[in-house]
């Protein structure tokens, strides 16, 4: 299996440390608002990764975190904590906000048919471990304290810039004008923030002699240390995580434990609308509920995503989603025909091996789909089941042949007698159940209309 490893900037043969088990960590959502289809894209792409690893015979131990503290609106060390902002917006406590959006996210995850992680890890359940990590960093001389918190001194980590290929000199030059904080280097980041007197921050822990809360990046290093032990095999996230969040996770784990955090790093690109990233601030968000309201299923959206590649930016349009829905429907109807003709129920082919080969090439789902289209007249039920397991696209329809056959017979008998009203009635009744009839020289078959 070949995967594109971000720090190496190339495809590499994937080899887990334990030949049978893969340790994976996925940076999860900040649980302060309803996720949009762009947010879910990452989890859909990585679901294909998990399924492909399983198809290759690996067991997968995967942790997905839920950020319920410390992620500030700037994505840096300034601004408001997103959870506090959500609490004010909805007139609830931060804990209520976290609970309710964790449940929204998990519902979406389930609706999308994504394989559950081995462990959901909530940041505030790891405060003790996060404090221990900060203490290690302090003891190892990687931090300094300023008025608003404890900061990681990035100049202490010689390889800080390597992961994201950062140009630190440029960053310094650019920051000189705006850079007026007490930080020693523009890239330094908070591992622990202090809460000033009168500051409105409900989530707080007494540590280092005063109230405070963890920096955003801290939870990932401490959850990985606790649940998976570094180095892990694969770490996944969005491309926006590369220059800051993942760079800082790596720096923390190095500073505290002198360890590499992960061997392979995968990053997915953004979903845009009219070329602009879907985001709350641009006001162009579409939710899973919006898809359903417009007559689409989560599986239609997944199929649309898999028509492209996780490393490419994808521009979403409703027309393209409609085309994806049609493609999925045509595949489901091919399977419906197999049920009725008993053709291609059994049989041996090299389809499955070819499909896995396509996905083993850095999750090349569009090549895998092209293979399905090219093989579609020969695919067996077993082939379809295999494809369905890999993509989780809810492709196999219920086999309603036994139920529908008497209706088809009645309708054809009516037609033979030129009893058009009866024939039309039956057809209309079936249509209202989303079933159409396909008349062919080999007989009449049911098909799905949606
Ligand atoms: P946020 O809650 O806004 O921090 O988003 C969480 C994560 O969702 C981000 O770190 C991105 O990796 C991902 N994300 C946000 N917007 C998009 C988008 N338009 N397309 C794909 N992924 C996105
Ligand atoms: Zn993370």
Outline of the structure:
By secondary structure, the protein is α/β, with parallel strands linked by helices. The protein has helices at 37-55, 82-90, 94-111, 127-139, 168-178, 218-227, 242-257, 288-293, 298-306, 318-341, 351-360, 365-375, 381-391, 401-416, 420-432; strands at 2-5, 10-13, 21-26, 59-66, 119-122, 143-146, 149-152, 189-194, 205-207, 210-214, 232-238, 262-268, 271-273, 276-277, 314-315, 435-440, 443-448.
Q: Can you describe what's shown?
A:
Strand 13 (271-273) and strand 14 (276-277) form a beta hairpin. The chain has 450 residues and is α/β, with parallel strands linked by helices. A 5-stranded parallel β-sheet has the order 5-4-3-11-12, with helices on both faces. It folds into 3 domains: 2-268, Rossmann fold (3-Layer(aba) Sandwich), CATH 3.40.50; 273-391, no CATH class; 401-448, no CATH class. The protein has 15 helices and 17 strands. The longest helix is centred in the last third of the chain and has 24 residues, at 318-341. The chain starts with a strand and ends with a strand. Helix 4 packs across helix 6 and helix 14 runs antiparallel to helix 15 (420-432). The mean pLDDT is 95. It has helices at residues 37-55, 82-90, 94-111, 127-139, 168-178, 218-227, 242-257, 288-293, 298-306, 318-341, 351-360, 365-375, 381-391, 401-416, 420-432; strands at 2-5, 10-13, 21-26, 59-66, 119-122, 143-146, 149-152, 189-194, 205-207, 210-214, 232-238, 262-268, 271-273, 276-277, 314-315, 435-440, 443-448. Zinc ion binds next to helix 7. Adenosine monophosphate is lined by residues 29-30, 38-39, 41-42, 238, 240-241, 270-271, 277-279.
């Amino acid at each position: 299996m070949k995967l594109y490893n971000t720090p190496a900037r190339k495809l590499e043969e994937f080899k887990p440390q334990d030949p049978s088990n893969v340790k994976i960590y996925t940076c999860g959502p900040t649980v302060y608002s309803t996720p949009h289809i762009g947010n879910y894209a990452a989890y859909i792409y990585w679901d294909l990764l998990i399924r492909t690893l399983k198809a290759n015979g690996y067991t997968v131990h995967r942790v997905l975190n839920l950020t319920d503290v410390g992620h500030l609106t700037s994505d840096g060390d300034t601004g408001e904590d997103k959870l506090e902002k959500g609490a004010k917006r909805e007139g609830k406590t931060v804990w209520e906000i976290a609970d309710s959006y964790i449940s929204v996210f998990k519902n979406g995850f389930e609706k999308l048919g994504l394989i559950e992680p081995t462990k959901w890890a909530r940041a505030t359940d790891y405060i003790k471990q996060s404090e221990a990590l900060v203490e290690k960093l302090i003891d190892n001389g990687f931090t300094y304290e300023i008025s608003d918190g404890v900061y990681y001194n990035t100049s202490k980590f010689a390889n800080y810039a390597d992961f994201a290929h950062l140009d630190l000199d440029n960053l310094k030059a650019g920051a000189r004008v705006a850079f007026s904080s007490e930080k020693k280097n523009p890239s330094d980041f908070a591992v622990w923030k202090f809460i000033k007197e009168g500051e409105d921050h409900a989530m707080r822990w007494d540590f280092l002699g005063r109230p405070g809360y963890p920096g955003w990046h801290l939870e990932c290093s401490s959850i990985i240390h606790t649940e998976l032990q570094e180095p892990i095999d694969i770490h996944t996230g969005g491309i926006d995580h590369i220059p800051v969040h993942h760079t800082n996770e790596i720096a923390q784990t190095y500073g505290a434990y002198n360890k590499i955090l992960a061997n392979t790093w995968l990053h997915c690109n953004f979903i845009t609308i009219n070329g602009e990233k879907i985001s709350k601030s641009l006001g162009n968000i579409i939710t899973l509920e919006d898809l359903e309201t417009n007559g689409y299923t989560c599986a239609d959206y997944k199929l649309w995503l898999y028509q492209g590649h996780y490393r490419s930016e994808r521009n979403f349009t409703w027309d393209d989603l409609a085309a994806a829905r049609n493609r999925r429907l045509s595949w489901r109807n091919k399977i419906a025909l197999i049920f009725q003709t008993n053709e291609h129920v059994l049989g041996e082919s090299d389809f499955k091996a070819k499909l896995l080969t396509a996905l083993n090439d850095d999750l090349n789902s569009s090549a895998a789909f092209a293979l399905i289209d090219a093989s579609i007249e020969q695919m067996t039920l077993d082939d379809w089941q295999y494809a369905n397991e890999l993509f989780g696209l809810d492709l196999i329809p219920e086999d309603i042949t036994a139920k529908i056959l008497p209706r088809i017979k009645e309708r054809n008998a009516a037609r033979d007698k030129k009893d058009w009203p009866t024939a039309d009635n039956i057809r209309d009744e079936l249509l209202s159940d989303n079933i159409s009839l396909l008349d062919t020289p080999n007989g009449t078959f049911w098909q799905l209309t949606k």
